[in-house]
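Aim 2, interim progress: modelling of the uridine-5'-diphosphate-glucuronic acid-bound target.
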Amino acid sequence: MKIAVIGTGYVGLTTGACLAELGHKVTCNDIDEAKIAKLKNGVCPIFEAGLPELLVKHLKTGNLSFSTSIQETIKDAQAIFICVGTPPKKDGSPDLSFMEQVIKDIGATLKHYAVIVEKSTVPVQTAQWMKSLLSKYLKTEFDVAVNPEFLREGTSVHDFLHPDRIVIGTETEKAAKIMSEIYAPIKAPIIHTNLNSAELIKHASNSFLSMKISFANMVAQLCEKTDADIKTVMDGVGMDKRIGRDFLNAGLGYGGFCFPKDVDAFISVLEKHKVDASLLNAVRNINEYQRKHVRDIAKELLGSLKGKTIAVLGLAFKPNTDDVRLSPACMLIEDLQKEGAKVRSCDPQAVENAKKILKDVTYCKDAYETAEGAELVILATEWSDFKTMDLKKLKVKKFIDARNVFDPGKMRKLGFDYRSIGRK
Ligand code: UGA
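Predicted structure of the complex, ligand included:
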């Protein structure tokens, strides 16, 4: 099938490359000319496992091409995936102006029937808005579909090709058939819904996962006060099949460009429709508290942080990505700096991106160099490099494990003044 993908961020690029892997002829579009030039030369602009290989492979097979021209991108396309960003506005609701521009561009250019697919995460009823906007501009017949993605950064290629489910929201049989054909090579259940339900499935899923994390963090706070162990408690809770163990790891809280933004956006949708949003407000508050809690443990261990040097291991919002957007590690660094601390840090992939958002951080090549001259080490992102480091080589003995990676007993045996989250 001939497919167009508009927007080559994490979602768009993964979607484009994976659709090419499924055998479709895909053209990806972006307004960023430098990015498109790089992609045409097989240079992947993001760190994402498996993506550079797919890019090179399908530039060669001819299944994947890139363009900055909407006209060229959507020519003969049976489906047009919109994967542009929906960044949050001040009130938490998403800014849909990029989508609006793309819709206008499609409207001005499309001359044949196509399914226009909303892939970006957006509030319920956005596809209906999209449809009415398209009808204003388009003379030709078209359909709108909602096909949310459930990709995790770092494993997005695998997640695309091996999903738990594929959600397809449509209004016509013709559109549902085209969408099903696109995904036919993937062995996963397809859920067909209307447009609004498909949109809600995505917002509700991300909000629910965020809620699981905040729930675990709330119980961790209680564990700290009652001499219980959060890992053991969550192992016990998670063994109930109805609950499941995933996303019950307490720590520095959730970050990245999805959960915080989607929880805020979902709160604004709930409030707009006059539904009580207090559950999700609590989820958000607990998440913010976790970072402050780690800062307060640092104060407990060092007294005032003014003039103290702290080594923060990790900058990315989670391991296996170079993404630092709304990263708890970076936000913690800013909190520590506000208290007057000097921060040294390292990350296997995210240093260059961190440099763009943080000030006055000394970047080092690895954990050992980062710890040199520091009075406290904080593990903020659980990269395997840190999990497997030789702890005996660390000269600093005050250690906050904000991701509960190490065993408290072993750490104390090694002589560390060790603190973690929800564990003694
Ligand atoms: C998340 C969802 O998992 C994807 O399904 C979804 O498609 C994506 O958002 C999106 O909406 O685009 P992602 O943001 O890549 O994916 O990251 P996750 O792996 O879900 O982790 C999110 C945050 O939660 C990280 O900061 C991680 O450290 C934190 N986390 C996760 C915890 O603090 N505890 C846990 O037990 C699990």
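The pocket of uridine-5'-diphosphate-glucuronic acid is lined by residues 121, 149-153, 206, 209, 213, 247-249, 251, 253-256, 258-259, 262, 317-318 (CB under 6 Å). The two ends are 57 Å apart (CA to CA).
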